[in-house]
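Researcher: Please predict.
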Amino acid sequence: MELHKKHEAICEELGDQAGMAGSYGNQALILSDWGKLDEAMELHKKNEVICEELGDRAGLTKSYGNQALILRVWGELDKALALLKKQAAICEELGSRAELAGTYGNQAVILSEKGKFDEGLALFNKVEVIYDELGSRAELAGTYGNQAVILKDKGKFDEALVLFKKMEAICEELGDRAGLARSYGNQSHIAYLMGKLDEALVLSNKMEEISEELGDRAGLTICWWNKGFIYEAKGDYHTQAKLWQKSIETKKSMGIPTQKYEKAYKMLLKSMQKSTGKKK
């Protein structure tokens, strides 16, 4: 950050507006990573003003996109969408296909958060076409996953599974173990929702194995919690309790809030006590 400040001072001294814009943008990204979103937004705004003055359309698209990400974190979804649409318009004007796919994807995520699933899917379909056209395999896998999550939420399990399988195939092709774990986890959840408990367990075990291999503790906590529901459906409440306890303890060690999980765990223990007539 100190070097970016020095760079900014030199650019200001030389009257290098483009250099100052770049410095503002880089500092803003660092501040965002530090969680200082108000300060980051202020610098992104300065970056935007200079890009407009210089007619730097490419720089302006980046500024709009970065501001939109902060607005989304703040929950100002409509303002974020407005900026992403501005970004998309410039990307189309400049023929920036990869960046256009990115902004469509960000819009689709926000629309899904607003419950506008069909609009979100329509944009993800556009993203898919662009990444397929560009041969961007990793991004294509992510897009399949995003579409599949929406379809799963809409209860279209078979359609969702087709896309998760496509995601799985690309992740295997690229050696993307983290992406493969996500695909297995989502497929497991669908199998659980469809009542295919043994299949759900096999897929959950695959996710767990990869998460352990990668040292992905956050992924493991999700896997153990979801696996607990599978055992609950199979009537094995003791295994469910062990998995949930392990998930909660790991979350605590990572500093992740566990109040709602502990509440569910305590309710499970009480239910087990009532059914056995014994105190734990």
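Model: The mean pLDDT is 93.
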